[in-house]
Amino acid sequence: MTTVRPIAQDRLPALLRAMPKAELHMHIEGSLEPELIFALAQRNAVSLPYASVEELRRAYAFTNLQSFLDIYYAGASVLLKEQDFYDMAWAYLERAAADNVIHCEMFFDPQTHTARGVDVKVVIDGLHRACVDAKSKLGVSAALILCFLRHLSEQEAFETLEQALPYRDKFIGIGLDSSEVGHPPEKFAKVFARCRELGFHLVAHAGEEGPPAYVWSALDVLKVERIDHGVQSSKDAALMKRLAQDKIPLTVCPLSNLKLCVFPDLSNHNLGALLDAGLVATVNSDDPAYFGGYMNENFTQTFAATGLSAQQAWQLAANSFNGSFIDASAKKAYVDRLNATFETFA
Ligand code: ADE
Ligand code: ZN
Q1: Closest CA to 162 of 105, 121, 130
Q2: Is 287 annotated as a binding residue?
Q3: CATH number of 20-341
Q4: Most C-beta atoms within 10 A of its C-beta, which of 42, 143, 186, 298?
């Protein structure tokens, strides 16, 4: 661990914004801003159950994960063509670059689109083209992780995998998202075993609203390399020990947790406790268009509410690179850039 030289408290927000960082937990469909939803609806002649951007935004008052997912899936209904997927991903990547995100591993939900008759090739081609352009035009490395929707069956996940395999060179990993409670990781044991044989990186949402038992089974049954969210792990001391010992990254999403009422207030968030317990926690935006903030808002609001330090800022950014699926030399190069930024603030 690098020991960070002290910096004045009033310079911390600028440091949080300036430091290079990786985003490891964001759903690209959750980056669709209301303005883009309406523009795409018009372009594709899709009718929406909201009269205006303002009315849609007013509906973003969530009480739990499901209340959000209902609106999130409705928003994604405007995506039909390859260019739509490109435009969505490009808008996110430009926004991420402005927050000094220099590496991103983004989730996509093919079943949300194939259920509406959109070919998985259209989805993957559009998103992948934006990732390629991000490297050359923004200097951001970006990769895709295909997520299965856990409220659907394992059989449907297998069918989705088959449909996507012809494009396997365009995504690096497999994840599990959507409604958590009642859909434990072990429901997808067989399909994750197959994805593992195929050589994909594996991640899963677990312990967002669901119990620590779901984090255990994501680790022991699905054999995932990272846990998405995982904040409920702090209820289980043995699990906290396991996560620390095995250096399993947790992709924590503070503003998401606030907006979906996982924590009543950001000041109650357990990010600092996870770091204090030695866990490889990271900060991420989840669905930034819906939860009121991209990466830098997640950092600055969480630090303001919880009083985390510059040392913890460095740790979170270093964790984001070390917890990513890039190779060891790229990790080192990114952490060197992180250290250089901290030097300019010392
Ligand atoms: N899909 C998009 N955002 C999600 C979240 N926070 N949890 C589970 N599934 C999701
Ligand atoms: Zn998520």
Answers
A1: 121
A2: yes
A3: 3.20.20.140
A4: 298
Identify the CA nearest to 56 among candidates 79, 33, 78.
33
pLDDT for 294 beyond 90: yes
Most ligand 1 atoms within 8 A of CB, residue of 178, 261, 263 to mutate: 178
Domain residue ranges of the chain, discontinuous segments joined by +: 20-341
Cα-to-centroid distance, 134 and ligand 2 (Å): 22
- End-to-end C-alpha distance for the chain, whole angstroms: 17
pTM (two decimals): 0.98
30 lines ligand 1 (CB under 6 A): yes
The b/e string for 170-195 (b: 16+ C-beta within 10 A; e otherwise) is: bbbbbbbbbbbeebbbbbbeebbeeb
Would the CB of 205 count as within 6 Å of ligand 1?
yes
Nearest to 204 by CA among 235, 173, 181, 234: 173
Ligand with the closest atom to the CA of 68 = 1
Nearest ligand to residue 287 Cα: 1
> What pLDDT does 2 receive?
82
Closest to 39 (Cα-Cα) out of 83, 72, 71: 83
* CB distance 183 to ligand 1 below 6 Å: no
Q: Which residues are catalytic?
A: 208
Distance 229 CA to ligand 2 centre (A): 7
Q: Is 169 annotated as a binding residue?
A: no
Cα 202 to averaged position of ligand 2 atoms, centre (Å): 14
Residue 51: band (very low, low, confident or very high) from pLDDT cuts 50, 70, 90: very high
Residue 6's pLDDT band (cuts 50, 70, 90): confident
* Separation of CA 262 and ligand 2 centre (Å): 13
